[in-house]
UniProtKB/TrEMBL annotation:
The chain crosses the membrane at residues 19-39. It comes from the Bacteria. CDD domains: LPLAT_LABLAT-like (cd07984). It is found in: Cell inner membrane. Keywords: Acyltransferase, Cell inner membrane, Cell membrane, Membrane, Transferase, Transmembrane, Transmembrane helix. Signal peptide: none annotated. It comes from Limnobacter humi. This is Lysophospholipid acyltransferase family protein. InterPro entries: LipA_acyltrans (IPR004960). The lineage of its organism: Bacteria, Pseudomonadati, Pseudomonadota, Betaproteobacteria, Burkholderiales. GO terms for molecular function: acyltransferase activity.
Length: 291
């Protein structure tokens, strides 16, 4: 069944662009209405996250954000059908680097971490940047082996990227960075207490990995944000300026500073941040469960 769904998914992506966009948007709208009605757990996770992070917003606004978020989640998920087929011309047309000149910062040879928070278009940014530079990233294995293979193959289609599983540890990642590969790193998921600290995220304690701070200090790496926005059928990827005065001397302070940067970027694009994720699942000692 999974293989059949994948064939339909990729077949949809091969339709002429205008027809594909119209049909995929319609599918995303229908599925959004269905999920808002029946996917109670995911809906409640999203609404809970929005309530915790934006207590000043009213319930109707949060419900609107929730519905928009689910639409963008589904819309960008469908777009992976063309992102993962390895057509460089299609990716260049549909994923625009807003400021490609910013990549000149790589010419100096300094180790680089591309900081990519979980905006829904992060796969589009990865595929587009792979056309410009050979990167390294880490991934988490999926429970479904067919889906896991699909993701790995799809994310390896363009350029010559190196994808490492978290089970491989940090040594091969460090070796790749020493060879000149920028690290494309997703810093803002709850992986539990291991290698994490509890720092604020929109005023709520969130288990946050310290890897960015540790690697930046160890490798003397510049940390450059990569922000992606879906807009009218296409994606816009903005490469930010290297974070100033980062990392700090203290890992916890550095990780807190990183979260404050992410908060600012999220406020500019609330509905396209990954609110479906249980960001506050791991709690500090003594605190009750949220979800």
């Amino acid at each position: 069944m999974t293989s059949l769904l994948i064939k339909c998914w990729f077949g949809l992506a091969n339709l002429p662009y205008l027809f594909y966009r119209m049909l995929s948007s319609t599918i995303a709208i229908v599925l959004t209405l269905l999920l808002m009605a029946v996917a109670r757990e995911r809906r409640q996770v999203t609404l809970t996250n929005l309530r915790l992070c934006f207590p000043e917003a009213g319930p109707f606004q949060r419900w609107g954000w929730c519905a928009a978020h689910m639409y963008f989640y589904l819309r960008t998920f469908l777009d992976r059908g063309w992102l993962w087929q390895g057509n460089a011309n299609t990716v260049r047309r549909r994923v625009r680097l807003v400021n490609p000149e910013a990549l000149r910062v790589l010419a100096g040879g300094q180790n680089t971490i591309f900081l990519a928070p979980h905006f829904l278009g992060l796969d589009a940014a990865w595929s587009r940047l792979c056309l410009e530079v050979d990167m390294v990233t880490m991934y988490s294995n999926q429970k479904n082996p067919v889906l896991n293979d699909l993701i790995l193959k799809g994310r390896s289609q363009l350029g010559q990227p190196l994808l490492l599983s978290r089970q491989q540890g940090i040594r091969p990642l460090i070796a790749a960075m020493k060879q000149g590969r920028p690290l494309y790193y997703l810093p803002d998921m709850d992986f539990g207490e291991r290698d994490s600290v509890f720092v604020d995220f929109f005023g709520n304690k969130a288990a946050t990995v310290t890897a960015v701070a540790r690697l930046a200090k160890m490798m003397k790496a510049q940390v450059i944000p990569v922000l992606t926005r879906y807009r009218q059928g296409r994606y816009e990827v903005t490469i930010g300026e290297p974070l100033a005065n980062f990392p700090l001397d203290d890992e916890t302070a550095s990780t807190q500073a990183m979260n404050h940067h992410i908060e600012r970027w999220v406020r500019d694009n609330i509905t396209q941040y990954l609110w479906l994720h249980k960001r506050f699942k791991t709690r500090p000692p003594g605190e009750s469960r949220i979800y």
